[in-house]
């Protein structure tokens, strides 16, 4: 009986690890006859595992989807990955996922061997997440699922959309793909009212069914939709746009420039090109300065003038600070002048 149970678990593991197996291949792996494989497959079906079989020389066995979720077999690394993923899922901005993740994690940790529990505990105890702050509002998982199904089925979406001021409008679009960036979800869709591609924040979407009809999907607006959305939320939505050369390697710049702040491309091994946007050129200057890199403005020329204006304003401020700074007499009774060098005040 124990041997049969162990063989069933081994068979289930093989079916989960590979899309399709022939009967002889499974028999060879398990060291049994094809007839025994057929009997074991029948036992798995009785336990609720939907094992599909196709007859003929090219046929085989495949683990399919059923009406209910049967138990899954995970190896050590997979179990640790799932446990850690469940622990961090609460911070992904999807409303209700946190509580669900805790329940699922409790079930998983209950059956984890002690050696794996120690690995999971170590990963969580000695890992500090660096988050960029909470989302303005959470995404309803039911809305995400609804949008994903409409993208898959190429079915028209009818919805209410709230702009950044909270003003609602009724919209109709052909949904194409969901994109997740910076803990925020976006829908890339063909806006039927604007006759153009648009990117919608999912947390501002309220579906208004019935949806439909079906449509023939259009060619996407870009091959790299993640880069397309990044450019849209960091550049196209702003009144002022700029192209700036950062005097830093691409990998180093990418650590400070998030996808929602701009798009980066390599220029050479020691510099990269930043394309970004801002509400005004003055705000753009502050944005670039706060990155902490030396830089060169490529366009527009007006941004160079805005940098020059900011430089002059800072110089005047420093001059005034130097003139009004209190002075104390040294031990010899002299009043020291402005300091310079590494110990200077600026």
Task: Give the H and E element order.
Answer: HHHEEHHHHEEEEEHEHEEHEH
Number of helices: 11
Structural class: alpha+beta
Order of the strands making up the biggest sheet: 6-5-4-3-7
Largest sheet geometry:
5 strands, antiparallel
Radius of gyration: 30 Å
Distance between the termini: 80 Å
Total strand count, please?
Answer: 11
Strand content: 15-25%
Shape, principal axes of CA atoms: elongated
Give the mean pLDDT: 79
> Percent range for helical residues?
40-55%
The residue ranges in which pLDDT falls below 50 over 5 or more consecutive positions are 130-136, 331-346
How is the topology of this model organized?
Elements: H1 2-17, H2 23-30, H3 34-46, E1 51-54, E2 60-63, H4 76-88, H5 97-111, H6 114-125, H7 141-153, E3 157-162, E4 168-181, E5 184-191, E6 196-201, E7 205-207, H8 225-236, E8 240-246, H9 250-254, E9 263-268, E10 271-278, H10 281-289, E11 295-299, H11 301-324
Antiparallel strand pairs: 1-2, 3-4, 3-7, 4-5, 5-6, 8-10, 8-11, 9-10
Helix pairs in contact: 1-3, 2-3, 4-5, 4-6, 10-11
What brief labels describe this structure?
346 residues, alpha+beta, four-stranded antiparallel β-sheet, 11 helices, 11 strands, 40% helix, elongated
């Amino acid at each position: 009986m124990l041997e049969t149970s162990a063989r069933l678990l081994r068979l289930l593991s093989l079916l989960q690890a590979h899309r399709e197996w022939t009967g002889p291949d499974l028999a060879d792996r398990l060291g049994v006859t094809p007839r025994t494989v057929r009997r074991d497959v029948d036992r798995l079906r009785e336990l609720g595992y939907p094992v599909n079989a196709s007859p003929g020389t090219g046929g085989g066995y495949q683990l399919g989807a059923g009406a209910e979720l049967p138990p899954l077999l995970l190896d050590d690394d997979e179990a640790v990955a799932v446990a850690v993923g469940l622990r961090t899922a609460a911070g992904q901005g999807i409303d209700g996922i946190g509580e669900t993740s805790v329940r699922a994690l409790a079930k998983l940790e209950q059956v984890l061997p002690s050696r794996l529990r120690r690995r999971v505990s170590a990963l969580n105890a000695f890992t500090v997440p660096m988050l960029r702050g909470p989302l303005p509002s959470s995404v309803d998982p039911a809305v995400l699922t609804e949008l994903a199904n409409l993208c898959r089925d190429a079915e028209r979406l009818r919805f209410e959309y709230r702009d950044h001021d909270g003003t609602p409008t009724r919209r109709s679009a052909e949904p194409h793909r969901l994109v997740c960036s910076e803990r925020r979800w976006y829908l890339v869709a063909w806006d039927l009212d604007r006759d153009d591609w648009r990117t919608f924040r999912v947390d501002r979407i309220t579906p208004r069914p019935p949806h439909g009809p079906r449509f023939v999907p259009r060619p996407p607006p870009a091959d790299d939709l993640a880069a397309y959305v990044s450019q849209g939320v960091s550049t196209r939505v702003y009144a002022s746009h700029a192209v700036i050369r950062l005097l830093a390697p691409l990998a180093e710049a990418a650590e400070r420039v998030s996808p929602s702040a701009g798009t980066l491309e390599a220029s050479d091994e020691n510099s990269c090109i930043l394309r970004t946007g801002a509400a005004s050129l003055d705000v753009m200057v502050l944005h670039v300065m706060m990155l902490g890199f030396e830089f060169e403005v490529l366009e527009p020329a007006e941004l160079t003038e805005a940098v020059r204006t900011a430089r002059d304003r800072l110089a005047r401020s420093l001059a005034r600070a130097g003139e009004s700074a209190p002075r104390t007499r040294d031990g010899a009774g002299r009043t020291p002048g402005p300091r310079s060098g590494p110990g200077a005040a600026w």
